[in-house]
Amino acid sequence: MDAIYRALLAGSGLTYPQYTVLSVLRQDGPAPVMALARRLGLSSNTVSPLLKRLEAQGLLTRDRGAQDERTVLVALTAAGRGLAEELADVPTRVTAASGLTEGEQDDLVGRLHELAGALQAGTDR
């Protein structure tokens, strides 16, 4: 799967983690760093360098919250939104390249959700 994503993202100049950040912001809109990290299933320490690189590329902005300066709000720029829109079909193309039937895909997604839940339950102890 990694090779498929790399091939599909090669022309964009994005890594898979950077792509996921843009994709989530495209779907959900602007978000605080902590909420974005939770949505991605990553720590804020992992997400912050990704955001810094994407900001340097002009794809997103990071602004301090007006009411709480400890909060950093992340939003796509016009260039970031445009790139995210261009890449919106990547999941469909990955699915097609996987060779799995729709039923197999649904089964895989269900099992991955079960695994993620079990892993989360293990860390909550």
UniProtKB/TrEMBL annotation:
Which InterPro entries does the entry link to? ArsR-like_HTH, HTH_MarR-typ, MarR/SlyA-like, WH-like_DNA-bd_sf, WH_DNA-bd_sf
Q: Which GO cellular component terms, listed alphabetically, does the Swiss-Prot or TrEMBL entry include?
A: cytoplasm
Q: Which GO terms describe its biological process?
A: response to stress
Q: Which CDD domains match?
A: HTH_ARSR
Localisation per UniProt entry: Cytoplasm
Q: Which residues form the HTH marR-type domain?
A: 1-117
GO molecular function (one): DNA-binding transcription factor activity
The record's annotation in Pfam families points to: MarR
Q: What is this protein called?
A: MarR family transcriptional regulator
Q: Look up and give the organism this protein is from.
A: Pseudokineococcus marinus
